[in-house]
Amino acid sequence: MTATPVPTPPLAGKKTLVVDVANEHSIAWGCAKAFHELGAAAPLMTEGGTLFAMSYYGAGKVVDNYNLMGPVKAALEAACRYFAFELGPRRIRVHPILRGPLKMRAASGLKDFDLLLADAAQKAPIGELADIMDVGFACAYLATPYARRITGGTIYVDGGVHVVA
Questions:
Q1: Do the beta carbons of residue 142 and residue 155 sit within 8 Å?
Q2: Is 56 a catalytic residue?
Q3: Is 82 a catalytic residue?
Q4: How far apart are the C-alpha atoms of 80 and 1, rounded to whole Å?
Q5: Annotated catalytic residue: which of 57, 66, 82, 141?
Q6: pTM
Q7: DSSP secondary structure letters along the chain
Q8: What CA–CA distances, in Å, run from 144 to 47, 115, 137, 147, 149?
Q9: Phi, psi (5° rounding) for residue 98?
Q10: pLDDT single digits (tens) 64-97
Q11: What's the sign of the alpha-carbon dihedral 159, 162, 163, 165?
């Protein structure tokens, strides 16, 4: 197995998370690449700003047929916490958004996705699932000064499904 160096994210300081060597098929590689790409936006945000990353339940719970994406999403959420810590002094806020199941092309590859949707809709305390517009509205709000003291924590946009056992 050949090690491939990961480019250093364009973030200054000793605290910056950098994976020096990782296989391009590893979770570490994926996180380092995401860090690099998110970090590339930071120098452009000279007056502060907001960064978003999309997550899913599989980050914290086992979701049948979600497989390797669960640990990848968990690593992404952890990376967002570190980003929030590092970029906070530059007035850049970071929000991992954990959205509920959405009908999208990527989800169509998951086995029994329709059953997952039906189960989530039944559990939703507000009686329906969030849709892509709800995710957009949440992001729009988080990018405003009204959310200026919110950063680093996972924001759930799922109709409340995450509170139900």
A1: yes
A2: yes
A3: no
A4: 29
A5: 66
A6: 0.75
A7: ---EEPPPPS--STT----SEE-TTSHHHHHHHHHHHHHHHGGG-BTBEEEEEEE-GGGTS--TTTTTHHHHHHHHHHHHHHHHHHHGGGTEEEEEEEE-----TGGGGSTTHHHHHHHHHHH-TTSS---HHHHHHHHHHHTSGGGTT--SSPEEESTTGGG--
A8: 13, 36, 11, 6, 10
A9: -100, 105
A10: 877 888 888 898 899 899 999 989 999 999 999 9
A11: positive
Token pair of 109 as six digits: 């590859």
Q: What is the pLDDT of residues 17-39, one digit of tens each?
A: 444 444 565 666 667 777 677 67
Structure tokens belonging to residue 17 = 């998370």
Residue from 56, 82, 146, 156 carrying the catalytic annotation: 56
